[in-house]
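Q: My labmate handed me this sequence with no annotations at all. I'd like to see what the chain might look like in three dimensions before we decide whether it's worth expressing. Could you predict it?
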Amino acid sequence: MSFLEKYSNIYVDLAQGSYIGRKKSKMLTQLDQNQTKEMMEKNYATFTFPHAKDAYGNDASKVYLQPDKLKTVTEKDWFGNEKTYQKGLLTDEKAGYNSYYVTDTPKLNSETKHTYFATRGSDGLSLNTLNDWASNNGSFTLFNAYIPQAKLANKAMHTKS
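A: Here is what I predict for the chain of 161 residues:
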């Protein structure tokens, strides 16, 4: 069982961190000022989870968030209105997909021993997340279908590894 206030379970912490506004978690979705500077200058952001261990009991107290290369995509909706959203290998706002690569080394390379892939599922149902709920959750729960986000996650894992 995880005790989130002490950040003792790296898997729970990273999963919680992929969501926006989780109070007891260090958020991968919202960098602090030092992490933002580090991401700009070094192309990664450091997260420290004191006393964190992986499944084998190895130290996992320091991990590095790897960036996604985002581009802004503009499309017209059915009514001719322009809609913009962010899209990258790990992010597709239109599909409601957000994933994060976190590694045990500052750069993802041959020295990397552990790579953690955290995917944010659906946040609460709202107009902003309706596409995610209808396309992904509805497909899976109502029709036992392969969800569109799974294809995006599969591509991201194979591309980065």
